[in-house]
Structure formats: structure tokens, C-alpha cells
């Protein structure tokens, strides 16, 4: 489907500079532009690509000033990055959705399946499962007994959702993720010299509008529920342990690990490989830089980095000192020797 510059400008409330009848049917990065594509320019560092890109249309921030005319038709907007997101959402929404139940899918006669549902080949729907209207369950996904899915959920191939777990509306889970596996609960037994498994009899509850990346694991609780609240976005390879509670609209990059019984507040942002200890509380709007290690509770409204986490300025100062430790160590030893020599001279 093609859209003209005029139509796009009307949708995103932009201003056309150039041919308002120019049409596009795909997206491309500005440095990899091609005819029929729309690109965007939000960072002034990439401005030089604008003068030779082959893209037909480019979204440009109002604040960016050009040194010479651009070859593409421009659409001036307040925030090109946000406008691209809106256009991508529109583009995705216009793709036809799969519907129908494949003859090779297994659906328990005790399960309840809503309207306009797609269930792919070799998907498994267990006893008592409830699949809401408009859900899409791709091949080889496993929905075990008594799982409840709200409306509009997308479950990609090879996702496993263990028994009793609850998903809200518009939840997306990408391939290979496991929802509701047993929490890591074991107790040492001095009599047998082994570990006794602590049964994990709780569930996982995922609220509305959550998206979970590929190969992410969210463990069921020992009792009660592990919670992932409304609007949370988890990247690939994230580990959420049992009895945790992830606050609404929190986002986590790849390889974040949250230990058990930890409560994370709303609107937090965790960079890649952040590790958080168990049985602590993280406040609202806590931003943690990549590879931060958090051994204790944190108050709200902080931007931190490191292990233990600290504000960015003292952290980078500390790193600068750390790199000089061998030199400083030698200086201290030399000074100590001089002091000892002075003492002997007395």
C-alpha cells in the first residue's frame, strides 16, 4: 500500500517541503535509503546523509537546519522519532492478521476458545484453558491447563505458558519464552546431604499491554503470584524470579536478572545485564545503567550506575581513580619508604 507525502503529513501533523504527491511503500534507514522508502532524521550528526539519500521522503525535526537543498521530499515535524513510531504502528496494524485453527493444532475439548482466534499447527491448548477473542497462538506454542489469556494476545512459536497462569489483554510473548516455570526454591537437608525441593504452587499474573522478548523466563511464585504489571516491556533473555512484582510501565533491556521476592516500582528503566538482589524494594522511576548490581533497596527518582549503584558523576570519577590504582599504590609505597628513612635519620 502506498501513501503520499501529503497523506503522511496530515496523519502526523507535519509540513511538506517538496513534492506533496511523492509516494512511499516501505521504510529504510536514511543511510540505506532507496526509492519508494520513507526515512527519518532526528540526530544532526546524520544530516550529511540527507543530501544524497535515495529515500523518496524523509521526516526531519523542525530544529534541523540544512546547508543545501535535499534531494528527497521533506516532512518537517516536531519530533521525527516519535512520528516514525506512529507510522510504524499504523503500518503494522494494516497487516492482515492470521485467523482460523489449523487441523494439526491440539485443543482440549475442555478448553474455551474465543472469536477470531488463530491457532497454528502443533500448538497445544490444555484442559480448562481460556483463549480470549482475537488471540494469535503460533505453531508449537504450549498453553497448559487452566491458563487464561485475555483478548488480543499474541503468543509466538515455542512459547510455553505453564498451568494456571493469567494473562491480561494485548499481551505479546516472543518465541522461546517460558511463563510460570518453577521458582528456584530448594532447602538444604542436613540429614540426607541433599537439597529438598520447595513446591512452587503459585502462578504468574501478567497484566494488560505487556510485551515480553524472546527467551525470557518469568517464574511462578512459591505461593500467591509473581506479577508483571500493566505496560511492562521486557527485552530478550530477561530472568524474573519467583514472587517478584514488576511495577507498571517499567522497561528492562536484555539479560537483566531480578532475584526472588523483589518489588520493582513503576516507570523504572534498567539497562542491559543489570542484576538485582532478592527481597528488596526498588522505588518508582529508578534508572539503572548497564551492568549495575543492586544489593539493597533503592529510593524513587534516581539515576544510578555501578556496583553498588551510585550517581553517574561520582561513579565515573571513581572509575578514573581505579585506573590509576597501580600508580597510586607505587607512590604510597615510595612515600612510606621515605618516611621510614627520615625516621631512621633521627
From TrEMBL:
Belongs to the transferase hexapeptide repeat family. LpxD subfamily. Keywords: Acyltransferase, Lipid A biosynthesis, Lipid biosynthesis, Lipid metabolism, Repeat, Transferase. The keyword Methyltransferase does not apply. Pathway: Bacterial outer membrane biogenesis; LPS lipid A biosynthesis. GO terms for molecular function: N-acyltransferase activity; UDP-3-O-[(3R)-3-hydroxyacyl]-glucosamine N-acyltransferase activity. It comes from the Bacteria. NCBIfam families: lipid_A_lpxD, PRK00892.1. One of its GO terms (biological process) is lipid A biosynthetic process. It comes from Prevotella lacticifex. Residues 105-182 form the Mannose-1-phosphate guanyltransferase C-terminal domain. SUPFAM superfamilies: Trimeric LpxA-like enzymes (SSF51161). Residues 22-90 form the UDP-3-O-[3-hydroxymyristoyl] glucosamine N-acyltransferase non-repeat region domain. Its EC number is 2.3.1.191. GO terms for cellular component: membrane. The keyword Transferase applies. Homotrimer. The active site is at residue 242. Catalyzes the N-acylation of UDP-3-O-acylglucosamine using 3-hydroxyacyl-ACP as the acyl donor. Is involved in the biosynthesis of lipid A, a phosphorylated glycolipid that anchors the lipopolysaccharide to the outer membrane of the cell. It catalyses: a UDP-3-O-[(3R)-3-hydroxyacyl]-alpha-D-glucosamine + a (3R)-hydroxyacyl-[ACP] = a UDP-2-N,3-O-bis[(3R)-3-hydroxyacyl]-alpha-D-glucosamine + holo-[ACP] + H(+). This is UDP-3-O-acylglucosamine N-acyltransferase. The gene is lpxD.
Amino acid at each position: 500500500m502506498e501513501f503520499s507525502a501529503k497523506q503522511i503529513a496530515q496523519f502526523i501533523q507535519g509540513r511538506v517541503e517538496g513534492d506533496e504527491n511523492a509516494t512511499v511503500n516501505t521504510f529504510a534507514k536514511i543511510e540505506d535509503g532507496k526509492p519508494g522508502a520513507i526515512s527519518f532524521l532526528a540526530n544532526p550528526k546524520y544530516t550529511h546523509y540527507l543530501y544524497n539519500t535515495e529515500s523518496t521522503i524523509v521526516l526531519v525535526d523542525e530544529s534541523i537546519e540544512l546547508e543545501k537543498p535535499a534531494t528527497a521530499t521533506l516532512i518537517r515535524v516536531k519530533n521525527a522519532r516519535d512520528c516514525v513510531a506512529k507510522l510504524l504502528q499504523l503500518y503494522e496494524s494494516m497487516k492482515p492478521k492470521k485467523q482460523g485453527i489449523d487441523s494439526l493444532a491440539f485443543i482440549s475439548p475442555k478448553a474455551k476458545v474465543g472469536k477470531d482466534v488463530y491457532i497454528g499447527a502443533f500448538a497445544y491448548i490444555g484442559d480448562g484453558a481460556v483463549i480470549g477473542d482475537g488471540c494469535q497462538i503460533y505453531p508449537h506454542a504450549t498453553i497448559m491447563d487452566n491458563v487464561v489469556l485475555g483478548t488480543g494476545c499474541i503468543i509466538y512459536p515455542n512459547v510455553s505458558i505453564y498451568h494456571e497462569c493469567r494473562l491480561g489483554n494485548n499481551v505479546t510473548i516472543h518465541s522461546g519464552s517460558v511463563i510460570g516455570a518453577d521458582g528456584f526454591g530448594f532447602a538444604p537437608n542436613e540429614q540426607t546431604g541433599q537439597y529438598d525441593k520447595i513446591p512452587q504452587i503459585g502462578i504468574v499474573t501478567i497484566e494488560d499491554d505487556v510485551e515480553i522478548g524472546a527467551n525470557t523466563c518469568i517464574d511462578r511464585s512459591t505461593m500467591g503470584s509473581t506479577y508483571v504489571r500493566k505496560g511492562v516491556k521486557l527485552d530478550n533473555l530477561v530472568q524474573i524470579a519467583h514472587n517478584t512484582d514488576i511495577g507498571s510501565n517499567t522497561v528492562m533491556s536484555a539479560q537483566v536478572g531480578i532475584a526472588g521476592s523483589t518489588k520493582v516500582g513503576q516507570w523504572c528503566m534498567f539497562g542491559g545485564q543489570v542484576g538485582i538482589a532478592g527481597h528488596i524494594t526498588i522505588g518508582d522511576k529508578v534508572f539503572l545503567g548497564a551492568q549495575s548490581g543492586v544489593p539493597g533497596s533503592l529510593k524513587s527518582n534516581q539515576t544510578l550506575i555501578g556496583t553498588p549503584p551510585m550517581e553517574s558523576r561520582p561513579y565515573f570519577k571513581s572509575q578514573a581513580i581505579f585506573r590509576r590504582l597501580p600508580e597510586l599504590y607505587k607512590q604510597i609505597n615510595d612515600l612510606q619508604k621515605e618516611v621510614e628513612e627520615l625516621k631512621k635519620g633521627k
